[in-house]
Amino acid sequence: DRPRPLHGRRVLVTAGPTREAIDPVRFIGNRSSGRMGFALAEAFGARGADVILVTGPVARPAPAVAELVQVETALEMDAAVMARVADADIFVAAAAVADYRPAEVAADKIKKQMDELVIRLVKNPDILARVAARRPRPFVVGFAAETSQLEQHAVAKLHGKGLDMIAANQVGAEEGGFDAADNALLVLWAGGQHSFPLMPKPQLADRLVDLIVERYLASTPR
Ligand code: PMT
């Protein structure tokens, strides 16, 4: 039998994309499939944790978890996370949350009239940064999806958002990242780092969760 080091602990995981409505039939979205976040939820569950999975709209079936919350927008994901984070021991943000949403959502389907159409965007809340700013707070693990300068951007996000750990992946390349079966990660924390080579996301999630558990158990209560 596998050891259950997270027995009695609550782990909150975000997964998938968000959709930001433009009008009743259109949205701004991204290519996240939910694979990485779902694999993490499964791996935490296998270690005995009560997993709360907050997911944006994805095509794949969700794993069996203690609570599944399905949301659409960044604002809904933020509300779902904030309503549950007080009880969480560990928070992992694997979702690809839209940084911006349309300032206005058209009540009716926008008609094809002008040659150019401008959609004004406003900033969404940064869910990860908001969780990290709480006191007390869970052990906080963020992701960084980057097309270049992976380590520099990840270090900036680790310190800028005040995280305990960050898992950085290259996106927009041939292999790994969004909507791929495999992924590779560079994981950073204060005083250490670890590189996981390209492998199937369930296997990668298993290894990342072992690392998170190790750091979480070694950390002082926040
Ligand atoms: O779903 P898959 O197809 O399996 O793809 C997996 C993945 C590539 C989506 C995943 O591994 C990943 O990198 N997720 C984070 C994607 C992302 O939005 O990264 P970012 O660098 O833009 O954001 C940094 C961190 O802040 C992330 O933890 C993100 O969840 C969080 N964030 C970002 C914006 C926001 N408004 N709120 C947030 O919480």
TrEMBL record:
Keywords: Decarboxylase, Flavoprotein, FMN, Ligase, Lyase, Magnesium, Metal-binding, Multifunctional enzyme. The keyword Lipid biosynthesis does not apply. One of its GO terms (molecular function) is phosphopantothenoylcysteine decarboxylase activity. CTP binds at residues 99, 109, 125-128, 143, 157, 161. Its EC number is 4.1.1.36, 6.3.2.5. The keyword Flavoprotein applies. It catalyses: (R)-4'-phosphopantothenate + L-cysteine + CTP = N-[(R)-4-phosphopantothenoyl]-L-cysteine + CMP + diphosphate + H(+); N-[(R)-4-phosphopantothenoyl]-L-cysteine + H(+) = (R)-4'-phosphopantetheine + CO2. Its cofactor is Mg(2+); FMN. Residues 11-222 are annotated as: Phosphopantothenate--cysteine ligase. Binds 1 FMN per subunit. Pathway: Cofactor biosynthesis; coenzyme A biosynthesis; CoA from (R)-pantothenate: step 2/5; Cofactor biosynthesis; coenzyme A biosynthesis; CoA from (R)-pantothenate: step 3/5. Residues 6-214 form the DNA/pantothenate metabolism flavoprotein C-terminal domain. In the N-terminal section; belongs to the HFCD (homo-oligomeric flavin containing Cys decarboxylase) superfamily. In the C-terminal section; belongs to the PPC synthetase family. Catalyzes two steps in the biosynthesis of coenzyme A. In the first step cysteine is conjugated to 4'-phosphopantothenate to form 4-phosphopantothenoylcysteine, in the latter compound is decarboxylated to form 4'-phosphopantotheine. This is Coenzyme A biosynthesis bifunctional protein CoaBC. It comes from Thioalkalicoccus limnaeus. The lineage of its organism: Bacteria, Pseudomonadati, Pseudomonadota, Gammaproteobacteria, Chromatiales.
